[in-house]
Design a protein that fits this description.
3 helices; alpha+beta; about 35% helix; single chain; about 90 residues; two-stranded antiparallel sheet
Length: about 90
């Protein structure tokens, strides 16, 4: 079986990523396929979809219902500094 990452409620992720996006970071939505369990990452940053199609099995998952996670990419030195400060504060 594929690795299943921890998922969080839709509203939590959207709220968490809003501040990151405002600081110049790119947030990529991730979800587990509800059918085959494959971890999926959307390819457009800062865009959140309610439904995702699995690249492995081709079936749809209701992301809003099942939860999601995200990956952060800091493209500028300022965004990287902000992300490092945020990470240090979470320890």
């Amino acid at each position: 079986m594929a690795h299943r990452m921890k998922l969080y409620p839709w509203n939590e992720i959207v709220a968490s990523t809003n501040d990151l996006i405002k600081q110049g970071m790119e947030c990529y939505q991730q979800f587990n396929c509800d059918h085959c369990g494959a971890k999926q990452t959307m390819d457009i940053p800062n865009m959140f979809y309610e439904i995702g199609t699995c690249e492995e099995c081709g079936k749809d998952t209701n992301i809003k219902q099942h939860g999601m996670n995200f990956m952060v990419h800091a493209r500028t030195p300022e965004a990287a500094d902000a992300l490092l400060k945020l990470m240090k504060g979470k320890r």
